[in-house]
TrEMBL record:
Pathway: Amino-acid biosynthesis; L-histidine biosynthesis; L-histidine from 5-phospho-alpha-D-ribose 1-diphosphate: step 9/9. Its EC number is 1.1.1.23. Its cofactor is Zn(2+). It catalyses: L-histidinol + 2 NAD(+) + H2O = L-histidine + 2 NADH + 3 H(+). Pfam families: Histidinol_dh (PF00815). Signal peptide: none annotated. The keyword Metal-binding applies. Keywords: Amino-acid biosynthesis, Histidine biosynthesis, Metal-binding, NAD, Oxidoreductase, Zinc. This is histidinol dehydrogenase. It is an enzyme of class 1 (oxidoreductase).
């Protein structure tokens, strides 16, 4: 028995969205990607996500 506090009686454990892959597409201009890359790099390095930081830094135009 699962600890659902009784909600399993009226709630389905699986739904259509459990079987769908959802993704988002975001479009930036080159200038916008450069500006966002600066912010993303700082955030990624703060989280020790070095590869993500390097990917963001690759988009920064000098």
């Amino acid at each position: 028995m699962l600890p659902t506090s009784g909600t399993a009686r009226f709630s389905s454990p699986l739904g259509v969205y459990d079987f769908q892959k959802r993704s988002s597409l975001i479009h930036f201009s080159a200038k916008g990607a450069s500006e966002m890359g600066k912010v993303a790099s700082v955030l990624a390095r703060g989280e020790s996500l070095t590869a993500h930081a390097r990917s963001a830094e690759f988009r920064i135009k000098k």
